[in-house]
Amino acid sequence: MFMQSLDSAIINTSLPRMAQSFAVTTVDLSLSITAYMLAAAAVSPLSGFLADRFGSRTVIVTAMLAFTLASVGCGMAVDLPWFVAARLAQGAGGALMLPVGTAVVMRMAGKEQMMRFVALMVWPALAAPIIGPVLGGFITQHIDWRWNFWLNLPLGLVLAGLVAAFVPQHRGEPRRLDWLGFVLCSGALVCLIAGFQRSSLPGGERRVAAALLALGALTGAAALRHLRRHQAPLLSLGVLRYPSFGFCAWLPGVIYYALFSAAPFLLPLLFQLGFGLSPTAAGVWVLVYFVGNLGIKPFTTAILRRFGFQRVMWVNGLLVGATMLGCGMLRPATPSWLIAPVLLAAGATRSMQMTSLMTLVYTDIPNAQKNLASTLLSMLQLTFSALGVALGAFLLALFQRAPGAMGLGVLHHAFWVLALIAAGGGIAFRRMDANIGIEVSLHRPARQKIGALPE
Hints:
- There is one protein chain.
- The protein is mainly alpha-helical and about 450 residues long.
- It has a single domain (about 1-165, about 235-440), classed as Growth Hormone, Chain: A.
- Helices cover about 75% and strands about 0% of the residues.
- α1 (about 1-20) packs antiparallel against α13, α12 (about 255-275) packs parallel to α16 and α14 (about 295-325) crosses α15.
């Protein structure tokens, strides 16, 4: 989690310099972020099958080494196609690390330990984005953006060694690979994400994008039909029937997976292209955003126990929208003492929502199905994270074509659209039963009489 989060945080602050190296626009480079997510989403359905067949430790170590070698390839890229190809390989390796690792941890966690386990898992993912923007901005400005990727070589080798030494080897019941399910799921995801990304391009590319989206929708429908009828499908859709998993892994939870990948993509552009700041200075402001992510973490457990998941997630969803609206109102003349609290609040609400989602999502899932749930959750997270970056690029391209459009105004409008989406997701969480997750949060709704918690 640390290595993947560090890589994502670093690349966002390096996009303008990388665009200059490859003689492309910054928006064009969003393809490299989407490519990573696309490859990860396409390969992640295999994670549960591979872990059962070869063992969780073997899969994690192999995936980390593949991610590390692909990072070296990113640093050696001489043009955009090479870089995108290396990012595809990087995404394929990253796709297997997180779901298999999460399944290892969650298999050991009972409901009474869920908040503690998730809290421990979130800390590395929150620490990396704090280090990444400043480190990436400094390396990009004073050394070379390529070293942002070459840093993964020693880091990846050390971490792979630690996993080999400490992570238990767990194998599930072997099963035959559902090849048709894999082809249909991967094909649908590739077409949908590629089509959405290309929809921001002008001219004939829009027709190509429309064809890809139509093909992806048809393939996705065929995949759902196959998964429902197959006796041993690659992905089990049955876990979506559990209330906590349905709300957090599907709608409205996926809205925030998309939003929280779009915001880190847009923020460096806001400060570098909109404000005219250097990569290092922009990295410092993005650092403030991620400090907000980390700063709220010691209080998340107390907040959830005081108010419960349902109230926190719908109120905080509205606050996520309010902070994105605030980011869309920042200008170069805005004083630093006002920019800082807006970014801190945006980071804090992001952390609160993601911690709530990740804690609640496994609450109702039996241990025997946590591996299947982790695979499906990872695929949905990666897919909608890719759609979030593509949405950010699409909004920028869309508003750039408006009459009288200006650089800063285009970025502002993109944040305003994201704010509306976030608010809509918060309102949707009001439909969730207030009793869901009380055995984890230990929150007692006001209408419930004093007594033992429900079994």
